[in-house]
Specification:
By secondary structure, the chain is of the alpha+beta class. It has helices spanning 3-58, 68-79, 110-118, 162-165, 167-198, 201-213, 221-224, 229-264, 283-289, 293-296, 301-304, 308-320, 361-396, 406-435, 447-464, 484-501, 532-535, 547-552, 559-569, 595-598; strands at 82-87, 92-95, 121-126, 133-140, 154-161, 268-272, 278-281, 324-329, 337-347, 350-359, 442-446, 468-472, 479-483, 507-514, 518-525, 573-579, 583-591. The chain folds into 5 domains: 7-169, PAS domain (Beta-Lactamase, 2-Layer Sandwich); 213-257, no CATH class; 265-358, PAS domain (Beta-Lactamase); 364-419, Helix Hairpins; 439-596, Histidine kinase-like ATPase, C-terminal domain (Heat Shock Protein 90, 2-Layer Sandwich), CATH 3.30.565. Helix 1 runs antiparallel to helix 5 (167-198), helix 13 (361-396) runs antiparallel to helix 14 (406-435) and helix 16 runs antiparallel to helix 19 (559-569). It binds adenosine-5'-diphosphate (ADP).
């Protein structure tokens, strides 16, 4: 509201009120004045009529005096009144205005009738003769009991023009109206001036209030120096602003704290109202449900997230006001398993729901892995044990005396025991690596030397399959720090796999590239290759692409799992590149020293 807009309305109201009050006052005043004037006029008319009566009586021929007209006209010129003499029958003998003209019988005029009855008649009416509003007063020429000469009574009537009588009132009214309007306008002008001066701070308050609403706090210094109510208002305004600012700060801090807490939570937190409109959603919840925070907040959950289990669980809580716990898979890629707990949440007068979500994908995968692992271990160990049991039984049932074959059976038992031993040794190694308890001895190794020794170890096996083992090391040599035994285990596993899965008469290559920060070792074969989907899984424990072939070739299914864990424990990474039917390259990247691991 601008003050300049309110002022005209205010003034209009004031002037209207002023005029209404003035009108009422004038109406009452003029009414009273009229009555007063009427009373005075009546008395005056009475006096004049008595005077006229005496004068008429004093005329030598009384009412019939030929000089009567002159007298009444003379009187009218002095008193400004109309005089009429009427005989007892009502005949007009003379009239100061019309003279002796016959103006009809006046016996039935109300003032004459009244005078006849009461001795005096007063009327205020329009003259039929002159067609003017007049005041009439009539008295009998002779009062009752008075001796009447010629027995002929009559009436003396005096008439004053109403307009002349009330002229004063009209002038007064005119003057009073002019005064009222003038004083009203003057008062309004002065009031505007005063109001404009006094109300000047009002727009400042309006502006300040607008600023406060927009979150801007302003001071009103000009007003606090005043000594009036505006100062009190400005002071109160300042206190209110300080209080508001404090509350806003507290609220902001609180909400920032809550946001920080929610943002740092691993659990997804979601709050919805009774319509399932999202009130709060932390970052973790958005990530778990694979939606953008802006899409989720303030929107209906079922419109943004299409997971029926989530919607049903919330709906159940909203209807029953009880907690609900459930687990479901998201539709995102990759799919996640979410465990949710929905609790009722008082939300104004209704009930909303608070949802806490845990991403249990890894947990469930781990549980599955553990279950699979136990099943796999049992299965893997069962095979050689069954063979051992079968051979032992055969021997017990008589084959022990079969001089030709009994040694074969014992050898088979020994072989299976070796397999069992290898499997158990691999399992123990794996478990040690997984527990993170394995300790390494970091020493300088010469890769050329390590490669040569590895080649020697696999020479016989390679020749058996007519394979070449080639070595490729940088010419200037490659010396770096690592655990010699671990490196040997990595190489042995990779080279033995390469020999196992290579095409006969092909080449297996062990090579290295020396980078400033790391050393990359590659074992390449031209063999069966590994399909893309299997490449993702070959590092899992007991995972084999071709189970029977692996077992026939003496594999435990743990080799690559051990390699991966060992490489990781040394602070390195392993990758595989392979094409089905063409061959495979395993690349191991190892840090140049133990610093990377310690950090
Ligand atoms: P295994 O004892 O069976 O060799 P690993 O863990 O060493 O177990 O290997 C897992 C699986 O990966 C193997 O069963 C095999 O199918 C596949 N694999 C490993 N190395 C190669 C390779 N060089 N060429 C083709 N397949 C391989």
């Amino acid at each position: 509201m601008r003050f300049s807009k309110a002022l005209p309305n205010f003034l209009l109201g004031y002037i209207s009120l002023h005029l209404v009050i003035a009108a009422i006052f004038l109406f009452v005043l003029t009414g009273w004045l009229r009555d007063q004037l009427l009373d005075q006029t009546r008395l005056r008319m009475q006096d004049v009529s008595y005077g006229l009566r005496e004068h008429v009586k004093a005329l030598p021929a009384g009412m019939n005096d030929p000089e009567l007209l002159k007298h009444v006209q003379n009187l009218e010129s002095r008193v400004q009144a109309r005089f009429t003499i009427v005989d007892s029958e009502g005949q007009v003998l003379v009239d100061s205005r019309t003279g002796y003209k016959d103006i009809g019988n006046h016996g039935s005029r109300p003032e004459i009738i009244e005078a006849r009855q009461k001795g005096i008649g007063f009327q205020q009416r329009t003259s039929e003769t002159l067609n003017l509003p007049l005041l009439y007063l009539a008295i009998p020429l002779y009062e009752p009991g008075e001796s009447i000469p010629n027995q002929q009574n009559g009436f003396v009537r005096v008439a004053f023009e109403e307009q002349a009588v009330f002229e004063t009132i009209r002038s007064l009214q005119k003057f009073l109206w002019i005064f009222t309007i003038g004083s009203g306008v003057l008062a309004a002008a002065l009031m505007s001036l005063f109001a404009f001066r006094e109300m000047q701070p009002l727009p400042k308050f309006a502006e300040a209030a607008r600023n406060v609403a927009a979150g801007k706090y302003v001071m009103l210094p000009g007003l606090t120096r005043r000594e009036d109510e505006w100062k009190s208002l400005a002071d109160a305004f300042a206190v209110m602003q300080a209080e508001l600012r404090q509350r806003e700060t507290r609220l902001r801090e609180n909400s920032q704290r809550i946001e920080a807490v929610l943002g740092s939570m691993v659990e997804g937190v979601l709050a919805v109202d009774n319509q399932q409109r999202v009130l709060v959603a932390n970052q973790a919840a958005c990530e778990m449900l694979d939606v953008e925070p802006a899409d989720l907040t303030h929107n209906l959950l079922q419109e943004v997230v299409r997971i029926p289990e989530l919607g049903h669980a919330i709906q159940h809580t909203l209807l029953t006001h009880s907690e609900r716990q459930t687990e479901f898979e998201t539709l995102s890629n990759p799919r996640r398993i979410l465990e949710i707990r929905v609790a009722p949440m008082p939300e104004q007068r209704e009930f909303g729901a608070a949802v806490v979500m845990h991403d249990v994908t890894d947990l469930r995968a781990l549980e599955n892995m553990r279950r699979d692992f136990v099943a796999n271990v049992s299965h893997e160990l069962k095979t050689p044990l069954a063979s051992i049991k079968a051979y032992a039984e055969t021997l017990r049932l008589g084959a022990i005396h079969d001089q030709e074959n009994n040694l074969d059976f014992v050898e088979q038992i020994e072989d299976q025991a070796v397999v069992l031993d290898r499997q158990i040794a691999d399992l123990l190694l794996l478990s040690e690596l997984e527990s993170g308890k394995s300790t390494f001895e970091w020493t300088e190794v010469d890769l050329a030397d390590i490669f040569q020794k590895c080649r020697k170890r696999f020479l016989v096996e390679a020749e058996r399959r007519d394979l070449e083992i080639a070595i490729g090391v940088p010419e200037r040599g490659c010396i770096f720090e690592t655990d010699r035994v671990a490196l040997r285990s990595i190489l042995d596993n990779l080279v033995s796999n390469a020999i196992r899965y290579a095409q006969p008469s092909s080449e297996v290559k062990i090579s290295a590239v020396d980078y400033p920060e790391r050393v990359q070792i590659m074992v390449t074969d031209h063999g069966v290759g590994i399909s893309d989907e299997n490449q993702e899984r070959i590092f899992e424990r007991f995972y084999r692409v071709d189970k029977a072939r692996s077992r026939d070739l003496g594999g435990t299914g743990l080799g690559l799992a051990i390699v991966k864990h060992t490489v990781n424990a040394l602070g390195g990474t392993i990758a595989v590149e392979s094409k089905l039917g063409q061959g495979t390259t395993f690349s191991v990247r190892l840090p140049r020293n133990s610093n990377a691991v310690k950090d």
